[in-house]
Amino acid sequence: MKRAVIMCRVSSDEQAKGYSLDVQFESLTRHCAREGVEIIKHYKEDHSAKNFSRPEFKKFLEYAKSNKGKIDMLLITSWDRFSRNLTDSLIMLRKLKAMGIEVHATEQPIDMSIPENKAMLAIFLALPEIDNERRSIKIKGGVRGALKSGRWSRVAPIGYKNTRDSENKPIIIPGEKAEKIKRLFELIKKGESQSDARGIMRREGLKISKSNISVMLRNPVYIGKIIVPELDDEPLAIIEGIHEGIIDERLFYEVQDIIEGRYKKRNRPLYNNTREELPLRGVLHCSKCDNKMTGSRSKSGGGNHHFYYHCNYCKMERMPAGKLNGLMEDIIGHLTFTSQAKELYEEVVKHLLSGSKAENKRKKVKIEKALVLTNERIEKIQDLFVDGEIDNQNYNATMERYSLKRKGLDEELGTLNTSDNGYRNWLKKGVNALSGLKTQYVKSSVSAKQELIRSIFPEKLSFDGEICRTERINDVLRFILQIDKDLPENKRGDFSNKLELSRLVASPGIEPGF
User: Fold this and answer.
1) CB neighbours (10 Å) of residue 106?
2) What is the mean pLDDT of the chain?
3) Residue 511 within any structural domain of the chain
4) Which of 263, 373, 505, 507 has its CA at a distance of 20 to 30 angstroms from the CA of residue 160?
5) Do both 297 and 416 map to the same domain?
6) Entry pTM
7) SS3 411
8) Pairing between β-strand 160-164 and β-strand 170-174 as defined by DSSP bridges
9) Rounded to an integer, what distance in angstroms lies between the CA atom of residue 77 and that of residue 27?
């Protein structure tokens, strides 16, 4: 005698339509009695068959695993009682077969010993899934159609309640919590954070989850509008709803501005690398582990705040920021340039800009010729219009086209003239900066200071307690500094007693060797 487990299933909506677990149970027990099958276990469940994550089916699987070899069949009335998902069904059938269990539908019997019958099985399993998807499309289409007509047809948002209008169609109306929703928006407007507003509303009888409050505050349903989501080629739209708003639009949009402002502020980087007191943060390297050092402020016992550079990797270096900042200013102050060096710099810049000037001159000539030609064409068009050879419409269109072209050429010519002045001003500022580099450094912003330091010291810069160390300084800068200096230390490339160029390979000089 074969041993079987029988399983009956209905979903909640099927139960409402009159389907019965008892009817299925009776049908299956009669089948077993007629075929001489022993029922060793039975299960009844009222869950959807979209998947096999159903409590009673899970219990069946556990029972089957612990009683392997003792179950021959799982009996159901029809294949849609097993599952309404084709792929999941085939996987589960294979899994049960590996456990020695065959699945049979008493009202849709299939002889699985005949290979061709597997096609019929696939049809039986696919039909429920097709039915599910078709119903889903209809439901979604109905919901979307209702939204487009301005009608909320889902579960009412907090503050509203579901009801029906005179035509028996679904509609939402303000509920008993409507005033509390208005109170929530007013709290945000007054400056309360979402967290504090949640606490206040909880004490006043309105419980809102942390994730839901932000959604509520952004939902235009509370001002009588409906969001129609994006679908395929239809963009997202916000339309007027047929329901009554709980709050006025002015309050709603004031809250949106507040939320957006807080969001931007909250998402700013917490780490700020541009504190005036810490210009070397991210530039200076730890002399112990070679990693970049950071900086922070600490409070002394007397209540005063002091800034320090420190290493967050090996945690072996911590130095007063004021001392290192002053040291860097002194080192930059030692970068003195004589008149000969400044003259050389000026000549180099002029040479670099000469190509740009020549190009600008060629552009000017080209633009000026184009301007002359454009002005001639404008005059010709005016003459043609006066002579009656072109109508008013063509005259206006053509004049607009050439007038715009003339305006563009004038602007381009003006830009080139301004550019020439800009080059001269830039050259003048560059020479002045070279004359007083320390003054320029002290007056610069933190980012400009960091950029200058990195340009002077392209290798890692560290501090051993007394002096700064680096492998080299900018090669062009070394060359300029050595033009007028004959001190022995400068032959090694050093220019300050507060900076040591470690592991520096001496340059053979600027003269070619023979």
Assistant:
1) 19
2) 79
3) no
4) 263
5) no
6) 0.35
7) helix
8) antiparallel
9) 8
